[in-house]
Task: inverse folding
């Protein structure tokens, strides 16, 4: 009996790590190259760029901390697209994973 | 890719070239790029072939099933690839790095002269590789030559890699690693630290030697460790050498062929 409970506990723990792996994949999918820089389409970047709507050119540091000249409207649009795409993938895979009940079905 | 088959002291052939075919199928599927191979023999399924003599080898120990075996590890060719690659822009991958996404296309879009992996993520949650955050004497960050990107402006990086390799014992003393086995990770970590380089902005997913392959489907690779299983559908570097067993090679070939 105790072995059975232990096994169930282990499976539950694996589910948690599968969710974490999915989250990690989501974070990876948010990065993209644009205007000679590398960017992350996270909520902070989207919020920051939203404050500069209407401005044609500005300098923003990319994820390597290099200042790059960009068009904030263009970059904002790309960030929004990337975020939506990655978040949709995440949600789809999360939903599929949440239906798994046994290690055999992982 | 670079692949040289090797025979262990127990007579088992480690078929790196077969694994390279699997890896090439996955690259074609997910990155839609031409794939080349450097080997001492012609290998089917590649767009470009560079035939070379086997390089000098170091002896490496490996657990295959329950048996510990040793074999010649032909590891020292990577630093010569700047002159050997037929491509203007090259992404080098280990043959046991199985791509399941298109994220390495970002390296081509960014196109910095030299890019390399510097973060590793253990998807089993055991943080098996955290101890390799820096070179052994904790001076500079460790990078992973499992995946490297370069273009025609990276000549200096490879010249410097050759210089380090030619003076490997000296550098091993400076940075505290063993000189007995040549490791590209060490050489390119130093290169990456000393010359302008970019680290790929994601962590390489890597599973340790005790994670064995049990299944490969459209949902990814299923690995077992201890009494646990995990399904991975991200790019994943698999260190377990049992993936080169006949059964697993067949499984992976079917999987990668169906990936087209």
Result:
């Amino acid at each position: 009996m105790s072995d059975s409970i232990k096994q169930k506990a282990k499976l539950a723990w694996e589910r948690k790590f599968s969710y974490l792996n999915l989250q990690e994949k989501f974070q990876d999918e948010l990065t993209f190259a644009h205007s000679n820089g590398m960017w992350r389409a996270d909520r902070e970047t989207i919020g920051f760029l939203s404050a500069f709507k209407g401005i044609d050119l500005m300098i923003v540091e990319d994820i390597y901390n290099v200042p790059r000249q960009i068009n904030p409207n263009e970059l904002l649009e790309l960030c929004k697209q990337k975020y939506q795409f990655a978040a949709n993938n995440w949600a789809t895979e999360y939903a599929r994973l949440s239906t798994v009940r046994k290690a055999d079905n992982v | 890719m670079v692949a040289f088959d090797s025979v262990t002291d127990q007579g088992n052939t480690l078929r790196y070239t077969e694994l390279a075919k699997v890896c090439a199928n996955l690259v074609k599927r997910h990155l839609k790029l031409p794939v080349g191979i450097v080997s001492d023999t012609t290998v089917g399924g590649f767009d470009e072939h560079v035939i070379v003599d086997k390089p000098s080898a170091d002896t490496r120990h490996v657990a295959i099933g329950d048996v510990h075996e040793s074999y010649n590890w032909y590891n020292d060719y990577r630093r010569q690839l700047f002159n050997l690659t037929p491509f203007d822009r090259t992404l080098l991958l280990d043959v046991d790095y199985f791509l399941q996404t298109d994220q390495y296309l970002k390296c081509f879009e960014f196109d910095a002269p030299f890019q390399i992996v510097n973060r590793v993520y253990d998807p089993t949650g055991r943080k098996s590789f955290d101890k390799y955050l820096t070179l052994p004497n904790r001076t500079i960050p460790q990078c992973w030559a499992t995946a490297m990107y370069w273009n025609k402006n990276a000549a200096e990086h490879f010249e410097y890699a050759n210089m380090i390799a030619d003076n490997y014992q000296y550098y091993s003393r400076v940075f505290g690693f063993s000189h007995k086995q040549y490791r590209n990770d060490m050489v390119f970590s130093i290169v990456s630290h000393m010359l302008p380089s970019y680290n790929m902005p994601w962590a390489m997913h890597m599973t340790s030697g005790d994670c064995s392959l049990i299944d490969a489907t459209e949902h990814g690779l299923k690995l077992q460790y201890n009494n646990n299983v995990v399904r991975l559908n991200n790019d994943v570097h698999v260190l377990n050498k049992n993936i080169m067993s006949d059964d697993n090679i067949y499984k992976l070939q079917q999987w990668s062929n169906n990936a087209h």
Q: What stands out?
A: Chain A touches chain B at residues 7, 10, 13-14, 17-18, 20-21, 24-25, 27-29, 31-34, 36-38, 40, 63-64, 93, 103, 106 (CB under 8 Å). Helices of chain A lie at 2-29, 43-50, 72-98. Residues 33-99 of chain A form one domain.
